[in-house]
Write the structure tokens for this entry.
Amino acid sequence: MPTQKGNMKNITIESIEQQLCTDVEIIISSETNTIDCNATLASLGIDSLSLVEIFVAIENRFNLKLLNTNLCNDDLKSIHSLSNKIYSLLNG
Amino acid sequence: MRFKRKNYLNGIDWTMNAIHLNSQKHTSSSNDFIIVMELQNIPDCKKLDLLLRTCIRKFPLLKGHPSRGINLAPYWKYNDSIVLEKNILSIVNIKNEHSISNNICEFSNEPMNTDFALFRLFMVDNKSFLAAKFDHRLFDGRGAEGFLSLVQREWLELDTFTESNNKKNPSQLKNWGDKFTSGKVFNRTMKLKMENCIPESLSKPVTKETLSYSHNLITYNKVESAKLLENANKHAGLFMTMPFILANFIMCFHAILKKRGQTSGNYIIPVTIDQRQNKEVLKQVFFNNWSMIFFRISQEELKSPIKIIESIKEQMFENMSNKFSFHMTNSSYLMRILPLRIMNKLMTWMLKGTTGSFSFSFLKESVYEFNNFMDTEILNLYHIPNMPVQPGIGLFFSSFDGKINAVLSYIESILSDQELAYIEKILKGLII
């Protein structure tokens, strides 16, 4: 269920990270139970399609459209850095 | 011989059977593809032959054939054990390395008859090229890479996942409601995509009765591949290599058609996608496990590659949001009720007489897990697919050990020498 942006103001980075990890695990069909949030997205085998799939998951969860947002390479380095970006956009 | 076992086909497999029939009708070969391993040395031929025989015996599916049941669901019919009557490995000495592309082209134009995997070792000086030819009815590109990995695993006496690879596929003769809902989503999306659009494509050569396949290989070394990724990152964004290359190729294709006087500027591009992780592929190397996205590019988007990239990304987002690829695969089970000849007609009718402007795919890093084959270093590994008669041209990218390879596959005579040279120039220009 998409969550209203208003309800997201009090969300913590840790919580965003956790939710994003769950989504990425499903998208990349990870065989391990948990994936390292600091691992680079490249090392997780992310490609254009899986990145877009992550953006769809982010829109559904946080009501944020990242596709045409100017994300820099550092924002897309890892789940941790992407969570930080989401946090700053939600609280910006 | 009495066939005892059956493995049900999915809708994509059945589609590949329809394309196989069409290719057989119009060309000297069929809907096959070759994976080439460029090897630093020459492996022991006797041991290689023995190794391949051992692997083929482990997977009896390789000696089956498609059939249909009374419930109209098509399946793969095969025996528990197989007898190998003839050689599956042929050995060819070639004069020099430059002739390898002609030799591989000849191999791709030879019919496979009753085999679903055939191997040819080309030897030149102290080097060799192992060309493995696969029938698309039983293998997709990544599955075939996985099969070669299993061959190497057999050589190293590692697990070849025999049990999971010989596991039966279910008939999928239930949950009809879900499949019809998927069919509705698929039809509506395609109808919207094709609205007021007759996709531009190259006209089929009319001079020959039997068509032949041709291919041009463009390799990027490690430095060039890194540069290509850097350029894609700069112009399309991180991880957006596929949209970057596709956008540039659309511009190139449009320039060619414009010169021919085809100026509508409407393009439909079917792009094959396979989101499985490499480990998953190794556990199911057989049959077709891919889906598709259809991109529509219109005249107003052709002003610059950046506009096309934006459009491709938006369409990818739309595709993922409404789960189009899932619905396409799920609804394709319904197509199994159709006899292959009707399937062929339906596929072309859906896309108004063509299956799109050209085909395209960008495979993830190779499923092949090793950097050597039978203790011989692999210098490169690439795919040479035979392009179906419609649309008659496709561009396919694959990667191995940090090196990107591009193969332009086309029906012979569909492109002039100047057009081919122009495409090569554009593809090489991606690293400038």
Chain A touches chain B at residues 28-31, 41-42, 45-53, 55-56, 59, 67-68, 71, 73, 76 (CB under 8 Å). The longest helix of chain A spans residues 13-27. The helical segments of chain A are 13-27, 48-62, 79-91. The mean pLDDT of chain A is 87.
